[in-house]
Design a protein that fits this description.
Length: 253
């Protein structure tokens, strides 16, 4: 199906393409069962507008998100597109701070899936006990739980604890995945979710086998050799867009 270029609201073609991509991501997350009622959030910077980003309308399920009902806000929380919908304060506070202070963080997702929250709530966090977990060992930050993320002053500690990584595991809470593109964060979250699911399953069977650091290093070195073309996550994301188009293409509207 061709990308729709005529938006139902006044915006550039670049913004409309970004809206469609983000709306598709919400539907894909919902298809995988990664949504959490009307909560959690995925955001995307608006192309050519460094201080503006798109986020879900607070009160809608992920299955109801479309390109046109996404809310465009600036990094100060002001609505820029006349949307009648509010924005979840926790979503704005967390995402707004990252978008403001990390110029590479164009796309961000935060979830409360059972598997990722369970790992975030365990003493050891993510363990090098399976194929997918090895993707991330040494490449995630941890942030101690401070309650619901609605206070801007926590943002400084979030960025500090993220460090040079692109994944931040909020202790007792859930993961934040950041990247340059929506396909990149989709693929990273998909692999992180699998890592956590398998870690939980492994612990249910007994003591896990921990993979040595030197083997983890080889695994991470060689991952690029099995990446499909198009950039991080591109082929994966396009495949799942085709899937959700067969289920319900209304995300494009």
């Amino acid at each position: 199906m061709a990308t729709q270029l005529k938006p139902k609201l006044e915006c550039s073609e670049a913004e409309w393409a970004a809206r469609q991509q983000l709306a598709a991501c919400y539907r894909i997350f919902d298809h995988f069962g990664w949504s959490e009622s009307i909560y959690n959030h995925i955001s995307l910077k608006v192309p050519g507008e460094p201080h503006a980003f798109l986020i879900n309308p607070f009160g809608l399920l992920y299955s109801e998100v479309t390109a046109s009902n996404l809310v465009k806000i600036d990094i100060d929380g002001n609505t820029l597109d006349g949307s009648p919908y509010p924005v979840n304060k926790a979503g704005f506070t967390q995402h707004g701070y990252f978008h403001r202070h990390l110029d590479w963080a164009h796309a961000i997702c935060h979830t409360h899936t059972t598997a990722t929250m369970a790992v975030c709530s365990s003493e050891n966090g993510l363990e090098a006990s399976n194929f997918y977990a090895c993707n991330f060992i040494g490449k995630v930050g941890y942030h101690d739980f401070e309650g619901v993320t609605v206070r801007e002053e926590e943002g400084e500690r979030l960025v500090q604890n993220l460090g040079d990584n692109r994944i931040l595991l909020l202790r007792n809470h859930g993961p934040v995945v950041l990247g340059k593109t929506i396909p990149e964060i989709f693929l990273q979250f998909w692999a992180l979710q699998r890592a956590c699911e398998i870690q939980l399953a492994t612990h249910s069977m007994g003591k896990p086998i921990i993979i040595p650091d030197e083997v983890v290093a080889v695994h991470q070195r060689d991952l690029g050799q099995v990446a499909p073309p198009g950039g991080p996550g591109f082929a994966d994301f396009e495949a799942w867009k085709r899937k959700i188009d067969l289920i319900d293409p209304s995300w494009r509207d």
